Amino acid sequence: MPQHDVVVIGGGPGGYVAAIRAAQNGLNVGCVEMESALGGTCLRVGCIPSKAMLESSELYRMAKEQFAQHGINTGALELDLSKMLDRKNQIVTGLTKGIDGLFKKNKITRYLGKGRLLGPNKVAVEGDNPVELDAKHIILATGSISAPLKGVEVDNNLIGTSTEALSYPEVPGHLVVIGAGVIGLELGCVWARLGAKVTVLEYLPRIMPGMDSEMATEAQKLFQKQGIEFKLGSRVTAARVVDGKCVVEYEGADPIQCDRVLLAVGRLPNTNGLDVNAAGVKLDDRGRVVVNDHLQTNIPNIYAIGDLIAGPMLAHKAEDEGVAAADLIAGKYAHINYDAIPSVVYTDPEIASVGKTEDQLKQAEIPYRKGTFPFAANGRAKALASTHGRVKILAHADTDRVLGVHILGPRAGDLIAEAAVAIEFGASAEDIARSPHAHPTLAECLKEAALAVDGRAIHF
Ligand SMILES: Cc1cc2nc3c(=O)[nH]c(=O)nc-3n(C[C@H](O)[C@H](O)[C@H](O)COP(=O)(O)OP(=O)(O)OC[C@H]3O[C@@H](n4cnc5c(N)ncnc54)[C@H](O)[C@@H]3O)c2cc1C
Q1: pTM listed for this prediction
Q2: How confident is residue 357, by pLDDT bands cut at 50, 70 and 90?
Q3: Which residue, 347, 393, 395, 410, is most buried by CB atoms nearer than 10 A?
Q4: Nearest CA to ligand 1 atom 48
């Protein structure tokens, strides 16, 4: 029976990073992944292909709507969707192969098959080459799966999840998105830019629950201007295919007939086939593996990371937990500051945030001061012809410590890195305000928002 210091089950951003880090720590590592390509949801059917499609579709929209204002006339534009999809697939293949290379470099043994716990130190690999592994430590990293919705008959074709929406063979005439969260909005934007009529049905009275509500309201207005239709407070009761068309029923209005439906109402932790009971690993009432501050389950040599446990379902959170679990197993110090994990919505404009929202501060009765700065007052944003949105910094009223940063605007996803570092370092708004920022850059909006916390923004 092959023996390993660490067996990782799942080869997504949590699992593959944990495997690499454990190998860097000098441990003998095996990684069990049931898909032929490593990289998990993120690389195969998540972060990377969605960003490739967002980038391509945004260029198409710009060519159609914005190039002319730069003095660039293109004539009639033609969309070659299959080429766009091929490009996306090539990016995915290149990156997943890259992880194969990293596994070889770090001498990690790859097992292709489904991992199942046989006990606290034993894992069965089920598949074409079944094998049992002996493990001193096990890291569970089996990620998440798309959540179903009662009454919605997913056929993985006309009514599908994000996986199908990354590869529609034609631009749907009318796409109905169920759920106004990050995934629904990003993919809704992709197909709207490529020419689909997009209707988003959301049960709650707002989009992007969890996001700073002021930013979410502003973003919704911008998405509406881009042609996306929102029906908020709409409870979907059924969706099915009838005679080759989709019919979506929701309370309080007539059913919608459309060409495709994207179900995007969230994701659930994936313990399918893992047989957590065999090792006695505890789950919480939402099916997530319960871990302590050291990412250990109730069985001390079994760790769990990523989408499988509580916390935001984000690739970089999974990666950081992978590194932490591998370091803790090796007897090193590790700590994750969950307050400093940024989240980004890659729409146009992008929306990014880190730390507390204004709603959370109000609810917790934490005294704060707020500084905002609009991109419309920034020279670089004007040069980019992308002036919508603003930066908002929330700092403690007494100590000036940065508690939350929220950005709606161009390249918000890149700009938020500075804010995450500020929160990690316990910086004050004054620290950001005193740090030189290159001119002309979008990052100057952060400096100005930090100055605005103290009422002394220069350019607004
Ligand atoms: C459309 C979409 C877009 C996204 N965009 C972003 C983004 O831009 N940024 C971001 O941070 N996050 C994004 N996410 C979320 C991100 O993909 C997840 O947070 C991340 O992949 C979680 O990593 P993980 O390692 O925990 O799990 P996963 O990536 O889900 O990996 C789990 C792996 O385990 C394997 N597996 C499952 N069960 C078994 C088993 N029993 N045996 C063997 N293998 C098994 C699966 O095949 C999978 O490869 C997106 C998700 C989606 C769906």
Answers
A1: 0.97
A2: very high
A3: 393
A4: 40
